[in-house]
Amino acid sequence: MNNNKILFIHPNYYSGGAQVMINIFNQLKDNSDFSCYMMFVGKSNYIQNLLNPSREIIYYKYDLLNPIFLVKLTNYILKHKINIIYTHSPATHLLLSFMNIFLRKKLVLHIHGDFDTNYIKVIFRKMLFNLSASKIIVVSKDLRNSLINIYNIKHDKIIVVHNGVKDLSKEPIDYFLKNKLIQKYNLNDKFVLLFIGRLVKIKNLDLLINVSSKLDDDIVFLIVGDGILKNELNLKINNMNVPKKVFLLGFLENDKINTILSISDVFILPSFHEGISISALEAISMSKPVLLSNVGGNPEILINNEDLLFNINNEAEIIKKINNLKDEYYYSEKATQLYRVFLENFNIENNANNIEQIFNKM
C-alpha cells in the first residue's frame, strides 16, 4: 500500500480542467491507497457553490500570489505530509513548479490546452517544468508533441491520458426545463446545433453566426456559456439579422447539460485550438454526433469518424457537413459509432484508473 497523500489544487473558477480534477478526486478519494485533499484558491465562491461541503476540500480566499496564501499553502503541505501535488491550471502549474524547487515534493502537472507563446513565459516554463515536475499528464498526443518540441520536455516525463466524463445518457433528464427551452426558442421541428463553452476568442463563435445566415431556416444554433464576448456576439447576431437562428442561453449548471443535449441534434465546436473537449465527450456520451474543427486534440476524439472534422477556413465545407447530418441513416450511423468510441476510450472510470496507475508508480 503506497498511502500517497495527494493535494489537488486549482484556482477558484470553473473550467474543463477543474471539472476533470473534481471527477478524478471523486473517483480516488475513497481509495484506501490514497489520502486526497482538494484546494481551491481565489476570492470567488463559484466552485464552492457547485460542490457539497467536505472536510477534504479547502478554500483560500486569496489571490494566487498573495504572500499570506503562499505561507498557508506551504504550512498545509507540511502539516498534512503531502507527498504528491497535482495541478490542472496554467497558473498553478507555474506557481507550484517554482515552489517545488524548495518543497521537493512529487509534482504532477495535468495540462489541458495550449499555453500562450509569450517568449518570457516559455523560458520560465521550460526551465521550471524540466526542473520541478515529476510527471506531466497531457490530454492529447498533439499536446505531448508541443511540450516536446517547444519546451524540450523529456519523452518519459510526459504521459497522454485522454479526458473522461460520466455517461450522461444514464443521468435523469429535467423534463420541465426541456419543455421550457423547446417552447421558449421554438425548437419543435428544428434541427438544433449546440455549442457549450466559454464565450472567448479561441472558441471562434463568429464562425457559427456567419454560417447560420447561409443555412436553411429550420437549422438553429444554441450557444450555452458565458464570457467576455457575450455582448459582442449579441450585437453580431442582430447585425446579421439571425436572432431567430442563433440563441445565447448563458451559463447552465452541470446537472442540466444532459437536458440541453437531449434537445439538440448535433454538438459543434469551431475552436481555433482544443485539448480534448469535455463538452464534446459529454455529447458523444449522449449519442450525439459532433462536428469539430480539425485542430489540436479534436481528431483524437473522432476515431474512424474523421469525416466529422472541418476546416475552420472553409464555410462551404461546414455547411455541407451540417446538411449531411440531416440524413437519418448517416446521423444514426455516426451517433452509434461515437457512443461506442466513448465507451471504449473516454468514460470517467478509464480516466480515473489511468491517473491512479500513475500515482501508484510514483
Salient structural properties:
362 residues; 7-stranded parallel β-sheet; 43% helix; alpha/beta
Write a short abstract of this structure.
This protein is 43% helix and 18% strand.
Description:
The protein is 43% helix and 18% strand. The chain is α/β, with parallel strands linked by helices and 362 residues long. It has a 7-stranded parallel beta sheet with strand order 3-2-1-4-5-6-7, with helices on both faces. A 6-stranded parallel beta sheet has the order 10-9-8-11-12-13, with helices on both faces. The mean pLDDT is 92. It is globular. It contains 15 helices and 13 strands.
What's the number of extended β-strand segments? 13
Q: pLDDT below 50 for ≥5 consecutive residues: which ranges?
A: none
Order of helices and strands: EHEHEHEHEHEHEHEHEHEHEHEHEHHH
| Helix content percent band | 40-55%
**Widest sheet: strand ordering:** 3-2-1-4-5-6-7
How is the main sheet built?
Answer: 7 strands, parallel
Envelope shape: globular
